[in-house]
């Protein structure tokens, strides 16, 4: 069970809720804060104070006063008018993350909603009723207005959801779980949609997948090293300790651990003095990508516990401030950074694929073909990998450097963070397919060298992977192999193979 407080949600807890469907509850202390901020909103309405979004219109209409009797219609109109997202829906797991993050943000007690709104979000999450949220249409400030409006519709019994594997009208799923639709009161519509939860949810899911493929890339590249009889000296601990990047040290250590008992690796000078960069510099390149992922994780864990709507209510309503916490710039930068870090994992992987298939760069059968000439083997798999990494280079263009004014120039600088998060996710999917191709090629090369000579950990991984993609004995439709391997990598957990980080402890002691 995960207890939401608005302040303590971690990446590990999100992983359990998103993937293992762990039950979520709100802490009693946080719900008391929600109640207090709600009382402040009701007092504002009753006293007819001029407060943005409570007794006024929105955006450029912030100077239009709203009658006390129209505050409910104001919220309904807000959700209806702002629910104009387009394009393919976000993945269902991202929609699930949006519910989790929105509930957690409201539990901070600065948003002025009723407790029933938080309870409804949590009920949808625990009942696995996931809003269908179009993925395009957000500028990333004033938050993710369009996507979050589609989420808010569901609380009102409108829009569509995915429930038990089927897309249906929201009201049908709510009735099945005996959940009553809400009529949104003053401030509640605005509190639900004025935030960064779409870009952050997409970012969290992307990060969790990126972290997984970063670990997998080290194990896959270890098999490539065996297939190419790579030089193990380049991973010597002393080399990496003297540079000082902990992530680089960790990558080198994990690869040493994977290959500790391999009979296929070589020493410098045994076959050659140095390997190409795509082998020799794996710790430096992969380690730098881990630095990126560590930065992204830090920013996401701040954002998932942030109050990002507007206005925010402080001191029991004595201070109500219109600000700009909905602006997604911190996450926009993080998503653009993640795009670059993951794209590089794919870039260097594609270069290793080339070394596995190019007969001018190795002593393996040309293109790993069972009958070179008659059969093409992995020749076009390398083409596919090259296409994917080139597509990633286009997607890696930073979304955050763009801005366009909206709401009659009232909202004149926006983050494009949601676009960045979507592009990051596309890059992650492409990168996994590139790694799938590397793994298919590396398995073939390792078998050519002799499976019995492989390290125990890489050999065990080969045996599991061969249940997904069999040995290439004859040309076949390799698209199926790539997709099957990709699907397997998306779900396989290699963390039991990862050794403790003793090298990092040593480095810290030396300092």
Automatic annotation (TrEMBL):
Transmembrane segments: none annotated. There is a cross-link at residues 141-143 (5-imidazolinone (Ala-Gly)). HAMAP family: His_ammonia_lyase. The modification 2,3-didehydroalanine (Ser) is found at residue 142. The lineage of its organism: Bacteria, Bacillati, Bacillota, Bacilli, Bacillales. GO terms for molecular function: histidine ammonia-lyase activity. It is found in: Cytoplasm. GO terms for cellular component: cytoplasm. The keyword Lyase applies. It catalyses: L-histidine = trans-urocanate + NH4(+). GO terms for biological process: L-histidine catabolic process to glutamate and formamide; L-histidine catabolic process to glutamate and formate. Pathway: Amino-acid degradation; L-histidine degradation into L-glutamate; N-formimidoyl-L-glutamate from L-histidine: step 1/3. Keywords: Cytoplasm, Histidine metabolism, Lyase. This is Histidine ammonia-lyase. Pfam families: Lyase_aromatic. Its main location: cytoplasm. The gene is hutH. InterPro entries: Aromatic_Lyase (IPR001106), Fumarase/histidase_N (IPR024083), HutH (IPR005921), L-Aspartase-like (IPR008948), Phe/His_NH3-lyase_AS (IPR022313).
